[in-house]
Design goal:
The protein is mainly α and 1100 residues long. It is built from 49 helices and 5 strands. Strands 4-3-2-1-5 form a 5-stranded mixed β-sheet, with helices on one face. A hairpin with a 4-residue loop joins strand 3 (127-135) and strand 4. The chain is elongated and about 150 Å long. 40% of the residues are buried. Keywords: Metal-binding, Zinc, Zinc-finger. Residues 1-28 are annotated as: Disordered.
Length: 1100
């Protein structure tokens, strides 16, 4: 397979240069390279030693690409705000190089060393770091720096030295491996060399030197049995493996630390960037990609939270689950590598098999199988009606559960040796004229002669595309992606033909069985996303200058795409193909998967795909693709989520339809509306609720108790509402479409809360501040509001009051007739309380009347309608609506009298004393004391206050009624006394009333006429009856309290007797009566000696 085309990576920082070591010294002068250099460059990539060109091999063996240095010195995650890439090791190393901090650079064989001088902080001295780098066959194999860097990748000092060697290769002093130099010395020179070396570093090397000398002098020692001696500067042998230096311990520690901080957003981002680093290594054909992924996986499996979640039976967090998904997908790319050695793949599969068997290994979410339907050029509908129930059971049945590594293990059985596949990948011009059907029974080309890829599930085929991209084969990935798309097109064509043959039967049945058990959007392998990204990547316009973090600027740059022609397909572009594939996946009719996370992933994946499409600026070619795809979606039958009949648990198309509606509206409004209206359906609710009927809990759109599998139902209903809102807004000014959209809303949306939001949005859209209102849209807003009122009439919630007020304001915007209509038809819309206290009142406020700008006759008509409404409500619910009705009818005598009569009639029918007292006080406030007195007597007739109810809620009302009757005169007072005696048995309360009535003459209050000159006596009628009742109440209450009295209440009882004596003394013979009462108590309760002693001490 061809290596990938040289291309600067998007993650490379500005200033990073793709250059060969020493290139500036040769090519800059326009001279061709010497043959010796050319051969040495080539040999240096594969062999560490070749005698004729040894020095040139040593020269060319150092890495030549700054991109590779960058890969090992930058992680790639977004740093904190303000830091940008200043703290990234590569950027720091570049600054050190440019500031002249590198000196004393020496290359001895395959070993490079140098000093880096770095300025210290304020008040700190300059710091000197010694850096050593070993390399082999254009890869750095080990690094050492005096800064003791403890990070994932190379420090800035290693970067600075490496970049110096790449950019200034000719200036670096170069020596052959030290063993070559030593071989040129005689005995005296060697002895001098060793002694000088020991003398220069005697404190460090003297013990080692002596030990080696002793072993060499000892015949038969191990060191004498080995020919030659090791040379750290000589490079490795051809059979030795070589790979870039990777600090495994630091990777493990970093992943462990990030997982322990898993609850933080930054930790997840850094782990994702490490996954991106693995992909970057795979793309560079760097074996460390797999090594790094193994290290990360081991740490993931050692996460202590896995055992805890399993023990508790709880699911892992969404962030953690997403990381595991990405880990599993990466392993598929690694195992499916098109160029790995068999022994490498075998070792990976052994590891995966071991991990797969661990108890803590997470299972893949959702009920996706391994072996879905294969890509094929023909397709038929699922079984007929008699087998539909069986198919439905299969859909809801739990799928086979496998771990996140299951797909990678399955990928181990796939290969790249298929002849047809090899030819697809090898050429853009592969066609039937060259090969026929390659010895196969199945067709391998479409009618246009373009290659097809058949015989394996669509997600698996797309995983091949992702693998090719991941391993640096972009051209081959494009070729395979094109073959897959051609296969999908042919398959869809046959699907449509198959549907047309059975269309009449399916439409008569009105429902269908599902044709796709597993959806492609939300699938663990993300097949649609893989295809789209591969196709879009080929069309992306690259910018001249790239930063280390492209998105770290103040504003994210808009991605630009261009049409790139597809070889062998005249007039077609990869950009149009990407749009077609995305719509094909998004519009697929598919079953919602099982589990909250899997369902949430469907939504998230759908939004990610649409975000990709929204980056693409639509031109005429793409609009034509949109039109064609939209038409096919509408005619797709059971294969399309926009088809005429749907399976009950199909994933709704609301989000996709909103994108299509917005994109198509400027170009083909009719098609846009047809598509969006078809997508308004939510079949799972339609089977449970007939059109127009609400949920069991109308204002709660998440009915998880009734639909336990549909965890995301609330989200789906919100998306449905957003689609409807977009259509209403777009249809403003077009009555035809407005009424069509309204019908669809009323038929398909079952949540009152969302209907109310739609009504509010429509009203807001219809009444812009700087333009006249759209009366049609206002009427639709009102109609939606009325539907909400009807749906929620029997379900009282705190939002009802808000809804009623809004409805009145919306009707006011339309005009007085609309307002009067809702008043006249209140019974089916509002409760009596809502109608009387909100509708009638709000509809007749000063602000409303000003807004309506009515003349006098029309204003009176509105008032009359409101009064009629209030009276009807008072008759329906006098307890809560009588007072509002009286208030509203104050200015109309006849209506006021009717409302008053309703209250009197209700009193006979059981209207409570509290409400009667409230209305009575209102009458007094209105200056109608006799009516107030009448209502007060009716309230007293219903009241009963026991002997121990000193704090009864009606105490204040009773005292007010007594005050009112006293102010009216002796006659009214005399009439109320029997009611007081019959209703009140509380002695303190009776004595309080008696005392109040004796303070002044009756009829002297502000409401009564003067009828008597002096206060009434307690011993004369009509107060003598009340006095007797009070005395009797004290006697009865005393005996009652003494029956169960405890010593701690003795003091309270003595105080009670003191108040009783005050009441007794109001009678002429009260002193004698009280004495007899006390004597009776002493005789009756003589056993309570302590209490009786207290009585004697107080009263004698």
């Amino acid at each position: 397979m061809d290596p990938p085309a040289a291309k600067r990576s998007r993650g490379c920082p500005a200033g990073l240069e793709e250059r060969d070591a020493g290139a500036g010294a040769v090519r800059g002068r326009g001279r061709p390279e010497a043959l010796l250099d050319l051969s040495a460059k080539r040999v240096a990539e594969s062999w560490a030693f070749e005698q004729p060109v040894q020095k040139r091999i040593v020269f060319w063996s150092f890495p030549r690409s700054e991109r590779e240095i960058c890969m090992y010195s930058s992680l790639g995650y977004q740093p904190p705000e303000g830091e940008h890439d200043a703290r990234v090791p590569f950027t720091r190393g570049l600054h050190l190089l440019q500031s002249g901090a590198v000196d004393r650079v020496l290359q001895v064989g395959f070993h490079l060393s140098g000093n880096i001088r770095e300025l210290g902080g304020p008040g700190e001295p300059e710091r000197l770091y010694h850096v050593s780098i070993s390399f082999d066959r254009c890869k750095i194999t080990s690094v050492s720096c005096g800064c003791d860097n403890r990070d994932l990748f190379y420090c800035a000092h290693v970067v600075a030295l490496s970049l110096y060697r790449i950019r200034h290769a000719r200036q670096v002093e170069l020596r052959l491996p030290i063993s070559e130099t030593l071989s040129q010395m005689n005995r005296d020179q060697l002895q001098k060399f060793v002694q000088y070396l020991i003398s220069a570093h005697h404190t460090e090397v003297l013990p080692t030197a002596q030990r080696l000398a002793d072993e060499i002098l000892l015949l038969g020692s191990e060191i004498n049995l080995v020919h030659g001696a090791p040379d750290p500067t000589a490079g490795a042998g051809i059979e030795d493996a070589n790979c870039w230096h990777l600090d495994e311990e630091q990777i493990q520690e970093q992943v462990k630390q990030l997982l322990s901080n898993g609850g933080y957003y930054g930790a997840s981002q850094q782990l994702r960037s490490m996954f991106c680093k693995v992909r970057e290594m795979l793309r560079m054909r760097d074996s460390n990609g797999a090594r790094m992924l193994i290290l990360m996986t081991e740490q993931f499996l050692q996460d202590p939270r896995l055992a805890l979640w399993r023990q508790q039976g709880a699911g892992m967090t969404d962030k953690c689950r997403q990381l595991w998904d990405e880990l599993g997908a990466l392993w598929v790319c690694v195992v499916l590598s098109p160029h790995c050695k068999p022994e490498e793949r075998k070792s990976w599969l052994q590891l995966l098999g071991k991990w797969d068997k661990l108890d803590v290994c997470p299972l893949e979410e959702g009920n996706y199988s391994f072996d879905g339907p294969n890509l094929q050029p023909t397709a038929t509908l699922n079984p007929g009606p008699e087998e539909e129930e069986e198919v439905e059971e299969e859909v809801v049945a739990a799928g086979s559960h496998h771990t996140v590594f299951g797909r990678a293990l399955q990928a181990g059985s796939l290969h790249w040796s298929d002849t047809h596949l090899q030819r697809i990948l090898a050429s853009d011009s592969y066609g039937p004229s060259l090969t026929g059907n390659v010895g196969s029974d199945k067709p391998t080309f479409d009618p246009q002669g373009r290659p097809l890829w058949l015989g394996e599930p669509f997600p698996t085929a797309c995983a091949r595309v992702d693998t090719l991209r991941a391993h640096g084969y972009p051209r081959q990935a494009l070729r395979l992606a094109s073959a897959i798309v051609n296969t999908l097109r042919l398959q869809r064509q046959h699907q449509l033909e198959s549907y047309k043959q059975q269309k009449k039967e399916l439409l008569q049945k009105g429902s269908t069985c599902i044709t796709n058990m597993e959806g492609w959007v939300g699938h663990p392998l993300d097949p649609i996303g893989c295809l789209c990204k591969a196709l879009l990547e080929a069309c992306r316009l690259e910018e001249e200058t790239l930063a280390l973090y492209p998105d770290s600027g103040p504003e994210k740059r808009k991605v630009a795409y261009q049409h790139v022609p597809v070889p062998g397909s005249p007039g077609e572009s990869y950009l149009a193909m990407a749009l077609e594939v995305a719509l094909l996946g998004l519009g697929q009719q598919r079953v919602l998967p099982e589990g909250l996370y899997a369902q949430d992933k469907v939504v998230r994946n759908e939004e990610q795909l649409l975000a990709l499409l929204e980056e693409v600026e639509l031109d005429e070619r793409l609009v034509q693709v949109l039109r064609k795809q939209a038409g096919q979606l509408l005619e797709g039958g059971p294969f399309s989520g926009f088809g005429e009949v749907l399976f009950r648990e199909s994933v709704p198309m609301h989000t996709c339809a909103r994108y299509l509606f917005t994109a198509l509206l400027p170009h083909d409004p009719d098609l846009a509306y047809r598509l969006a209206l078809r997508a308004m359906r939510l079949p799972v609710l339609e089977t449970a609720f007939p059109a127009g009927e609400p949920h069991g809990n109308p204002l709660d759109s998440i009915v998880s108790n009734r639909f336990p599998r549909w965890f995301i139902l609330g989200h789906l209903e919100t998306r449905q509402c957003e689609l409807a809102s977009a259509m209403l807004t777009a249809a403003k000014g077009d009555p035809k479409w407005l009424h069509t959209v309204l019908g669809s809303i009323q038929q398909n949306i079952h949540s009152p809360a969302l209907l109310f939001k739609l009504a509010q949005d429509a009203c807001k859209t219809a009444t812009p501040a700087s333009a006249p209102p759209d009366t049609t849209l206002l009427g639709i807003a009102l109609e939606l509001g009325l539907q909400v009122m009807r749906m929620t009439l029997n379900t009282m919630t705190w939002r009802r009051r808000e809804m009623v007020r809004w409805l009145v304001s919306c009707a006011t915007e339309i005009g007085p007739q609309a307002l009067m209509n809702i008043m006249q038809n209140w019974y089916s819309l509002f409760t009596p309380v809502e109608a009387a206290t909100i509708v009638a009142v709000t509809g007749t406020t000063h602000a409303t009347l000003l807004r309506l700008q009515l003349d006098a006759p029309r204003r009176e008509e509105l008032w009359a309608c409101a009064r009629t409404l209030a009276l009807q409500c008072a008759m329906k619910d006098p307890q809560n609506c009588a007072l509002p009705a009286l208030t509203l009818c104050e200015k109309n005598h006849a209506a006021f009298e009717a409302a008053y009569q309703i209250v009197l009639d209700a009193a006979a029918g059981g209207l409570g004393h509290a409400h009667l007292f409230t209305v009575a006080r209102y009458m007094e406030h209105r200056g109608l004391p006799l009516r107030a007195y009448k209502l007060a007597t009716l309230a007293l007739a219903q009241l009963s206050i026991a002997f121990n109810q000193d704090s009864h809620p009606a105490v204040n009302d009773v005292l007010w009624a007594c005050s009112l009757s006293h102010s009216l005169g002796r006659h009214e007072l005399s009439a109320i006394v029997p009611l007081i005696i019959r209703s009140i048995h509380c002695a303190p309360m009776l004595s309080d009333i008696l005392r109040r009535w004796t303070l002044s003459a009756p009829g002297l209050g502000p409401l009564g006429a003067r009828r008597a000159a002096k206060p009434l006596g307690a011993d004369r009628a009509p107060l003598c009856q009340l006095l007797d009742a009070a005395v009797a109440a004290y006697i009865t209450t005393s005996h009652s309290r003494l029956t169960h009295i405890s010593p701690r209440h003795y003091g309270d009882f003595i105080e009670f007797l003191g108040k009783a004596r005050e009441t007794f003394l109001l009678a002429p013979d009260g002193h004698l009566q009280f004495a007899q009462f006390l004597e009776n108590l002493k005789q009756t309760y003589k056993g309570k000696k302590k209490l009786m002693l207290l009585v004697r001490e107080r009263f004698g």
